[in-house]
Amino acid sequence: MTENHSAERPGLSRRGMLGLAGAAVGAGVVGFGAGVAVDRAVSAGAIGSATTYPFYGEHQAGITTPVQDRLHFAAFDVAPGLDRAGLIELLQDWTTAAARMTQGRPAGTYGPASGPADAPPDDTGEALDLPPGGLTLTFGFGPSLFVDATGADRFGIASRRPAALVDLPHFPGDALVEALTGGDLCVQACSEDPQVAVHAIRNLSRIAFGRAAIRWSQLGFGRTSSTSRSQATPRNLFGFKDGTANIKSEDESVVRDQVWAAAGDGARWMAGGSYLVARKIRMVIETWDRQQLGEQERIVGRDKGEGAPLSGGTEFTEPNFLALAKTGGTKIDPDSHVRLAHPTMNDGAQLLRRGYNFVDGNDELGRLNAGLFFIAFQRDPRTQFIPIQSRLAKNDLMNEYLKHVGSAIFAVPPGAREGSYVGAGLFS
């Protein structure tokens, strides 16, 4: 897409500017203390990418946008005592900064190397010499923003919580870590350059100082899905192609039916928005690596090279779950991942996936702490993610090699109009 040359919104609120000035310590944690060991050695074409995506529009960018190669995802908790007006002001300040950064401009008016010499810069500066890198910023609201753990309606919006924004159930096999779950707000930053994505989250966190703080965050690399037919299917850390059957942006009718919420769904302010489910899934890499190739393929339901279903054909051949094997049974195991996740096994339900690989070093036993940071957008988690994951959690052959440690759900409002802010419909 071409750069958006639309008029710029007014600058940050006074509180936003104070946040920029007072968050040096906290911003350091967000920017580089969470394991930013992911190097920037992406392809030269991606590093030099001048691509920009418009921030304002009918839908938020970062959903059907072609999946970028790098991710920095952050969940925030709103500060105790912040009132409704303060929350709205935060969202306005975030919108202003996001609209600037996605077009390759600094987060604040002055930028990192100008402005008053006796005040901190209003941008941290690590993206100063970098192109936009196709940056998208996508914002969401968690269930706890509507009603907190005590049942309090902090911001007068409890009655406007969408019915689809449910608390996710505990699935069989879940080993969730409290510090990796939930959040009042979320920001998904995707870019072709990891430093551009980190810069965006770091500066949004600085702007939020005193009003919201990072609850948890995750860096991701090497997308594990494609959202456009122009993209090749990537591979996950098990070495298999991932997301072959993912929803593509070109499938407009499918996107409309499976991804975008509609006014008739029960929450009119969510029309044109979506629901984001994030799951941090650790892969038991060492055990998987010792498994025979044939067994790996049986578990997945596809061959490891081409990515074709074991029933035959090429990568995009539709699986035939009734095809019989010469040795007895079906060619595709009934409990394989491909079969259990297929729309025909889930009443036609599909997900638009935007997942990423992650490597967070090693654990205390020296094993690789790595896996999949799963992100999926959908129209209604009650009829899409929850039943699909329930089926997988009970029977998927891959469960022996997976450990779900993080989980969250967010309502992603529609895109903002110029002169307004993300989520304005919720408060109107």
Question: Any overview of this molecule?
Answer:
This protein is of the alpha+beta class and 428 residues long. It folds into two domains: 1-136 and 182-221, no CATH class; 167-176 and 224-415, no CATH class. Helix content is 23%, strand content 18%. It is built from twelve helices and nine strands. It has helices at 14-22, 24-32, 44-47, 84-101, 143-146, 194-207, 252-258, 285-289, 293-300, 337-341, 385-395, 424-427, and strands at residues 70-78, 136-141, 185-191, 212-223, 274-283, 352-353, 356-362, 368-378, 402-412. Strands 1, 2, 3, 4, 5, 6, 7, 8 and 9 form a nine-stranded antiparallel beta sheet that branches. It is globular and about 75 Å long. The two termini are 31 Å apart.
Q: Gist?
A:
The chain has 428 residues and is an alpha+beta fold.
Layout of strands and helices, then pairs:
Elements: H1 14-22, H2 24-32, H3 44-47, E1 70-78, H4 84-101, E2 136-141, H5 143-146, E3 185-191, H6 194-207, E4 212-223, H7 252-258, E5 274-283, H8 285-289, H9 293-300, H10 337-341, E6 352-353, E7 356-362, E8 368-378, H11 385-395, E9 402-412, H12 424-427
Antiparallel strand pairs: 1-3, 1-4, 2-3, 4-7, 5-8, 5-9, 6-8, 7-8
Helix pairs in contact: 1-6, 2-6, 4-6
